Amino acid sequence: MAAKEAAKAAKAAAAEAKAAEPKPPKKPSNQYACFVAASQQGLKAENPDLPQPELMRMLGERWKNMGEEERAPYVEAAAVDDVRYRDAYATYKEACEAAGLEPVKEAPVKKDKEAEALEKEERDLEKAERKAERQERRGKKRAAESAEPKEPPPPTVYDPMGVNSKGTFENALPSSEIDVDNLEGAMVLVKWPEYGWLRGVVTDKNDDEEEKDDRGREVNWFVEYADDETEAGHFLSLDDYKPKEKAKNWCWCVIRPPPPEEPAPEAEELAAEPAAEPAAEAEA
Predict the structure, then answer these.
(1) Cα angle at 153 between 151 and 155, to 5 degrees?
(2) pTM of the predicted structure, to 2 decimals
(3) What is the reported pLDDT for 261?
(4) How does DSSP assign 117-136, residue by residue?
(5) In this predicted structure, what is the pLDDT of residue 200?
(6) Residue 179: what pLDDT?
(7) What CATH superfamily is the domain 16-99?
(8) Rounded CA gap, 279 and 283, in Å?
(9) Fold agreement (16-99, 175-255)
(10) Could you report the per-residue pLDDT of 223-269, keeping only the tens digit for each?
(11) Are 194 and 180 in contact (CB under 8 A)?
């Protein structure tokens, strides 16, 4: 009997302690919820026989057909309610910290879907403009280079993908010489698990936080590949710097450019050299 009473008392004490814990505030209402709360009773009075699902469908249609001016009061009401929630949550969090309790996670700031779509459209447009600018700069650079007269390159034994006896690219720079913040113009080898090692040149630094690579990481550099002149954004970090030919995962390395060659002597220089004197005729 005593044990039963003790258990009952412990249960009551636990319930009392639970009731004394800080309660999280009601989450903020979005614009549509404010509209429904303000309009539902009036619509119900106009249509007392309509079932609740039909009333909600009618409210949804009204909301879709409303313009910005008609929605403005509910946009403001949602903003006011969000301020109410943020203030109440701050008080609730302080009470939890004082009681040594873990507060529930704060509700994220709600955004209007149309505003989000507009922001995304603007970001995509800015991204396309930056890409067009990069391509225009590279096009002008290629045009200027092609306009300059070029002589055929001298034969060379330089191999950018040559491998030494240890299986390391012999022209790869050590990681200690790499500054990932200053890679523009660097010749690189990039290991794609599905394609193998591809050679390219780092062209531009990325300034768009929304640009992600195929592994979901934020792009910091763009690479133009030599084989097909395609461009790809990558997150180049020293953690992935592995100049090993048989590396299995995605990695990259910087390779030394080919060494400068001795220029061939110009035709005018050859003509300026004195000709050898003919041998003197033998005396008769």
Answers:
(1) 145
(2) 0.41
(3) 67
(4) HHHHHHHHHHHHHHHHHHHH
(5) 92
(6) 93
(7) High mobility group box domain (1.10.30.10)
(8) 12
(9) no
(10) 999 877 788 889 999 999 999 999 889 999 999 988 776 666 565 55
(11) no
* Long-range contacts formed by 42-47: CB under 8 A, 24+ apart: none
Residue type, position 44, single letter: K
Please report, for the chain, the start and end positions of each structural domain, with discontinuous segments joined by +: 16-99, 111-146, 175-255
Is 10 a residue whose pLDDT tops 90?
Answer: no
> 251-255 and 231-234: which strand pairing?
unpaired
Average of per-residue pLDDT values in the chain: 83
Helices 68-99 & 31-46, crossing angle to 10 degrees?
Answer: 120
Which three-class secondary structure state does DSSP give residue 232? Answer: strand
- Residues 64/88, Cβ–Cβ less than 8 Å: no
175-255 CATH: 2.30.30
Q: Give the tokens for residue 105.
A: 């996670």
Burial letters 209-233, b for 16+ CB under 10 A, else e: eebebeeeeebbbbbbbeeeeeebb
Tell the residue number behind the tokens 């704060």, with chain if given: 106
